[in-house]
Amino acid sequence: MAGAWASGLLVSFITLVPLWLFTRRFKKSTRMHSVVVFVLGDVGRSPRMMYHAESFASNGFETYIVGYRGSKPTTALLSAPRAQFFYLAQLPPFFSHLPFVIVAPLKIIHQLIAILITILFTIPNTPEFIIAQNPPSIPTLVVMWFLSRVTSAKVIIDWHNLGYTILALKLGETHPAVTMAKLIEKFFGRSAYAHLFVTNAMQDFLVSQWNLRQVGLKIVLHDRPPSHFHRCSPSESHELFCRLGLTLTSSSSLQSLLPNFELPRSTPFTTTVPAASSICPPRDGFPSPVHLPTLREERTALLVSSTSWTIDEDFGLLLEALEIYNRVASVKGDDQSLPRMLVMITGKGPLKDMYMGRIQEAQRTWDFVQCISAWLDTADYPLLLGSADIGICLHSSSSGLDLPMKIVDMFGCGLPVCALDFACLQELVQPGWNGMVFKSSEELAGQLISLLRGFPRSPMLETLKSAFAKTPDSPSLSSSHSFGSLIDAGQDVGGKWEWTSWADNWNESIRQSVLGHHVSQS
Q: What transmembrane ranges does the database entry give (predicted)?
C-alpha cells in the first residue's frame, strides 16, 4: 500500500504540475478572503468541517467546500450566500470488481488527481487559506503541503485525531505501514501555517513529541454544537415521533415494548391533551379546545447512541450492559421499578450489520429492552437528541487525545451521557455533574439502573439534567444560543459552566488569533 501511495503521488505531480504552470497565466489571482474547506470524505458527515465553513462564510470569506458527495450538509451551510460546494469525482463502480492489489493504487492515483484538479483548476480563485481535517493523513497532508508550495495558500490543519493510531488498530502498532504512516504524518503535518487541536491533550502531545513548539500558530478549539441544537419542547418531540412512526412500529417486539399510541394524537413518548386557548375564538361562550402535546407519564425511557460503526467503538459493551439491565428490570417487587427502554442507534458504518445482528439475536428473549438502528437527516438528528433521556458514547479514541463530537452534540441538546472512559475525557465529561463515566459493561449497566430508577422522575437523572439548565448565576444566554452551546471543556469558572456557542468560540479563537487582519471587516 505504501508503494502504491508513493507511485500515485509521483504520477499525479508529474502530470499536473506542468499543466498547472501552463494554465497559471489564465487563472485568476489569489482571492483575498477566500478559503478551501477540504474534507477527504463525505462532507455531510463531517460536522466540525461544516461548522468551519459556516464560520468562514459568515465572516466574509468566499468559501469553497471540497469533498465527496453523500449525506445532506447542514441547512445553514446550504443557504450560506458565500459557500460553494465542489464535489470530488468517485472511482467508477466497475473498479470494485478488480482485486484489491489493483484497485488500491488506482484509487489512490484517482483520488490525488481529483483533489488537485478540483483545487487547482475548478474553484474560481486560488484560495488565501486551505483548512483540512486530519485524519485521514494520507494523502491529505502531503497534498496540502504541495498546494501550499504551488499556490502560496496558508494551510490550516484541524487535528481531530492521529491517523497512524487508527491504522494501528487494524495492523498493530509495530507494523511497517504504521511506522511509515507516522513518519509521513509527522513530517508533512509540521509544515502548516496554523494548527487547531480538539483537546489540550492533543496540543500538549504534538508540541512535545513532534516538536511543534516553533512551528505554526497553535490553537485549542474545543468542539461546540451549532445554535439550533437544544432541548426539545413536547411539541417538537411530538412532531418528530409522528414522523418516525413507521420506524417505531417496524417489529412486533417493538410494539409490545412501547405503550399503545395512535398517530397523530399520540406517540410512544408524547400525547395531546385538550387545553383552553385564548388565541382561538370562543364558540357558544366556551373557549375552543386546543390539543397540546405533552410527555406521557407511562412512556418508555429513550436512550440514543450515535456511531460510525468502526472498530474504535465496541458495541459489545452496550450489548452486555443491556442484558444485565433487562435481567434486573425483570425482577418483580421493586419499590422503584425500572422502566422499559428503547435504544436508538444512529449512523452508518462497516460494522453495523455485524453488531446489529448480534443485538437482534440477543434481544429475542428480552422483555424490557429493545434496540433499533436508524439513519436520520440532519434536521431530525438534533431533535432526537433533544428528546432523549440518556446518551450513550462508546468512543474509545485510538490516540487517547481526541474527544467525540457526539457528546458535544448531546450536551448541546441538554442530554446527559454515559461515556466510555479514556485519557482526556475529563476535558468534556465531568462525572456526577453532566454525565457518568464507565470502564466496563457492568459499570454501564449499574449507571443505567441508578439513573432510571423512578423514571420519569428519577432523582439522579434530574440532577444531571439540571446541569444544563440556565440558572441566575449562569452567563446570559441569548435565544439563538439556547442549549446550542457547551461548557468550555475542562474549565470550571466559580463552580459554574462557562457557556459559549460555536460561533463565539470560533470568532475568539480563529478569527482573532489565526486569521488576524485577513478577516473582512465588512
A: 6-23, 100-123
Asked which of 201-205, 322-326, 397-401 is least confident by mean pLDDT, the reply is: 397-401
Residue 296 CB-density burial (10 A; 0-12 exposed, 13-18 middle, 19+ buried): middle
Q: What is the pLDDT of residues 250-298, one digit of tens each?
A: 777 888 899 999 988 999 999 998 765 544 555 555 555 567 899 999 9
Centre a 10 Å sphere on the Cβ of residue 513 and count the other Cβ atoms it contains. 13
Angle between helices 234-243 and 380-387 (to 10 degrees): 120
Contact between 226 and 51 under an 8 Å Cβ cutoff? The reply is yes
* Residue 355 or residue 247, greater confidence: 355
Q: C-alpha grid cell for residue 145? A: 503541503
Residue 331 identity: V
Give 297-321 pLDDT, tens digit per residue: 999 999 999 888 888 788 889 999 9
Residue predicted with more confidence, 398 or 295: 295
Q: What are phi and psi of 401, to 5 degrees?
A: -120, -5
Structure confidence at residue 464 (pLDDT): 92
Amino acid at residue number 163: G
Domains and CATH numbers, the chain: 34-99+129-220 (3.40.50.2000), 300-468 (3.40.50.2000)
Question: What percentage of residues in the chain have a pLDDT greater than 70?
Answer: 82
Q: Cα–Cα distances in Å, from 137 out to 230, 461, 475?
A: 33, 40, 39
How far is the C-alpha of 20 from the C-alpha of 510, rounded, in Å?
31
Q: Are 155 and 130 contacting, i.e. CB atoms less than 8 angstroms apart?
A: yes
476 burial level (CB within 10 Å; 0-12, 13-18, 19+):
exposed
Cβ neighbours, 10 Å, residue 197: 24
The CA distance from 489 to 222, in Å, is 7
pLDDT at 414 (0 to 100): 92
In angstroms, rounded to a whole number, what is the distance separating the alpha carbons of residues 131 and 514?
A: 12
CA–CA separation, 353 vs 436, rounded Å? 28
The pTM is what?
A: 0.77
The model's confidence at residue 181, banded by pLDDT at 50, 70 and 90, is confident
Helix then strand then coil, in percent of the chain rounded to 5, is 45, 20, 40
The residues facing 294 across adjacent strands are 271
Instruction: Confirm if 69 and 87 have CB atoms less than 8 A apart.
Output: yes
Q: Return the C-alpha cell found at 519.
A: 478577516
Helices (H) and strands (E) in the chain, counts: 17, 17
Of 332 and 457, which is predicted with more confidence?
Answer: 457
Instruction: Work out whether strand 301-306 and strand 62-68 pair parallel, antiparallel, or are unpaired.
Output: unpaired
CA dist 306 and 77 (Å) reads 22
Q: At what angle do helices 315-329 and 441-452 cross, to 10 degrees?
A: 50
